[in-house]
Structure formats: C-alpha cells, structure tokens
Amino acid sequence: MITIKLLPAIACMAPMACAFACLLLIAADIRRSTTRYGRELRLLLIIIYLTSIMGWLGLVFHFIHHAAFAWYYPFFLCTLMINRVTLYHFVYDLTSTDSKKQLSPLHYFVPGVITVVALVISFQTPLEQKLAAIYGTKGANIQGWFFYLYYIANIVFIVYNTVYPLLGLSRRRRFLRIADDYFSNPERSSLNWICVIMVLILVTVLMSLIELFVKNNLLSEVYLIFIRALPSFVVCVMLCYNLISENYISIEPEEETDTIPHNGEKQISRARFEKYMHRCKPYTNPNLRITNIAIDLNTNRTYISVFINHEYGMNFNRLVNSYRLRELERLRASAASAGHSNIELILQSGFNSYRSYLRAKSDDDASRTIEQF
C-alpha cells in the first residue's frame, strides 16, 4: 500500500520514466541518422536524458533512503551541472555556423573539478554528519565542509539553470541573423522550440525561489515536485520530437576554396541571376537553401549571399519570398488555376505553410510602406 510519505518519491519517478522512454527512442533513431552531425546530436541528447534520470533518482533517494542520498550526493551535484552543460552543448552544435569552432572544454572542466572536490569531502565526512547537514538531525554535529557543500547545490542549481539557458537563447539569436542569408524556410530555421525549452528551464529557477516562501509540509512538497516535473516532461518530449522529426536546419561548412570568386567562370550578373530564377523557379522548393542556387550557378554560398545583399538590398530569405509572392499572384491570375484553392496555390508558389505566407506577406507589406515614406 502506498503511503503519503512515498508520494514525493513517486512524483520524482514520473519524469524519470519520461526521460527513459525518450532515451530509448533517440537510441533507436541513431541508426536512421546518416550523418556524423546527426549522430553527435543524438549522442548528446542521450547524455542529457541519462543525467536527467540520475538527477531525479537522487531526489528519489532523498525521500526514501537518506543514507543512500548522503553517499550519492556528489553524483547528484554533478548531474545538475553536466545536464545543463550538455544541453547547451546540444544547442551550440545545433546552431553552429562554423564546424571548426567547438565548445570549450572548460564548460565540462568546472563541473568535473567541483565533483572531484565533492567526492573527497564526502568520503572524509562520517555518515552521521552528512545526514545532519542534509536533514538537520537534532543534536548532531553539523559543522564541517560537507555542510557547506550541501548548500552549494542550491547555488549551483540557480546559476547553471540561469546562465546556460541565457547562453542558449543568445546562440539561437545569433543563428537566426545568419540563417536568413542561407535558408528560405523560416519555420525550420527559427528553432522556436529551443526558445521554449530555455524559457521553461528559467521557469524552474523561479519555482525554486517560490519554494523558499511556501510552508514546508509534505503535501505542499508533493505539489511543488509535480509542478517542477512538468517543465522537465515538456523539455524531454520537445527535444525528442524535434530531433527525430529533424525540425532544424544546419549550416554546412564550405570548402576552403569557397571564397568570393574573382574569375569569370564563377562570377554572375544580375541579368544572369534573374534569368535563372525565372527559368528554373528554384523558389518553388519550400526547403530551398542558398547552397542549391550556388551549385546551379557554379559558385558558392558566400558569393551568392553577398551578391543578393549588394544587388537587392535584402537577405536570401526575403528575396526568395518576394519571388514566391509574385509567383502566387501569377497563379491566382492564371485561368489554369481556377479550380485550385488558395492554400494549394500558396503551396505551389513555394511556401511550406499558410503561416509562412502570412509572415512573408506581412514583411513585404511593411517594407513597401517604409519605401513609400
């Protein structure tokens, strides 16, 4: 029979089960990935799920087996740090624009040093003192390094759950500025789900601060655990779903020879570019990349990006959408399109959804209004 004292532990097991299920799905999906980049992202996600499971397991020990948690505490502290570092590593690779730049090892070195120090202190501290520091045993000696080590966990939790989500949001923002010059599908390149995940993690910090002002009793503790587990559920599921469905776009590195061309073979003119766009209509591909056009024109993406910015005063994404809007107007005026719905014509013109069309139309109307003034 389940007693009320076991409810906090049961509440902690729920996100553990969710993380374990997502881990199995990602592990099974590794074989489907055909690129090293895709496999590395999946391996990072497996580490995220493993550390998440270990972290919630520590809380289970905290409620049902005090001695086990006292010995497990250094590893629990480690999972709090490594989980957030690995998640940032995942976002760092996902938003990478230069494969030569890798995440600094210092991000992992600091948690490693803290964990080693915690292990040394833990092994040198008697179990009674550890229990006194953690659970406040009456009449016990709560002096010593372990007492301070235990309260470091709150600081670590707040720092790592604040700094790394903010770094992740900064990486996404930087990626968006560059992505507009390479992709024509803003929905996949926007990585909005990364933004949601980072915000949810920041919410857990707010919940931890609220706990300081909530009366400490078993029932309120259970409620708070369930509330804190909810963002963990959402984060696990969103990471798993978006990676398996490949709801992201990577900027592939160019070869060293892919610089701005200075020979007649690779340089293009505005007339040649517009002739190619009207004849081949590459913009009707909803997942068009700037590299697709670069290959067709026998040049490189850097040159195409600079060319578009110089000749048209806009980025690649806006230029492609302007062609799609003109193509949509042509289709609507064509007698051959009389039997097609508006959505069908929008998709035929190259937009991957009605929302993408509305966004492009809004941006185009705004730019026209600015030009009038």
Features:
mainly alpha; Arc Repressor Mutant, subunit A; elongated; 2 domains; 373 residues
Structure description:
By secondary structure, the chain is mainly alpha-helical. It has two domains: 9-244, Rhopdopsin 7-helix transmembrane proteins (Up-down Bundle), CATH 1.20.1070; 270-372, Arc Repressor Mutant, subunit A. 72% of the residues lie in helices and 0% in strands. Residues 255-259 have low confidence and may be disordered.
Low-confidence stretches: 255-259
Mean pLDDT: 83
**CATH top level class name of the largest domain:** Mainly Alpha
What is the percentage of strand-forming residues? Answer: under 5%
If classified by CATH, what would the architecture of the largest domain be?
Up-down Bundle
State the share of residues found in helices, binned by percent.
Answer: over 70%
What is the CATH fold-level name of the largest domain? Rhopdopsin 7-helix transmembrane proteins
Task: Label the structural class.
Answer: mainly alpha
Order of helices and strands: HHHHHHHHHHHHHHH
Helix count, DSSP H or I runs of 4 or more residues? 15
- Number of structural domains: 2
The radius of gyration computed from the alpha-carbon positions, rounded to a whole number of angstroms, is 27 Å
Query: Kindly, what is the distance between the CA atoms of the first and last residues, rounded to a whole number of angstroms?
Result: 74 Å
Report the strand count.
0
Q: What characteristic shape results from the CA principal axes?
A: elongated
Characterize the main sheet.
none
What secondary-structure arrangement, pairings included, does this model have?
Elements: H1 7-29, H2 36-64, H3 66-94, H4 106-124, H5 127-135, H6 145-179, H7 186-189, H8 192-211, H9 218-244, H10 270-280, H11 290-296, H12 301-312, H13 316-333, H14 342-348, H15 354-372
Helix pairs in contact: 1-2, 1-9, 2-3, 2-9, 3-4, 3-5, 3-6, 5-6, 6-8, 8-9, 11-12, 13-14, 13-15
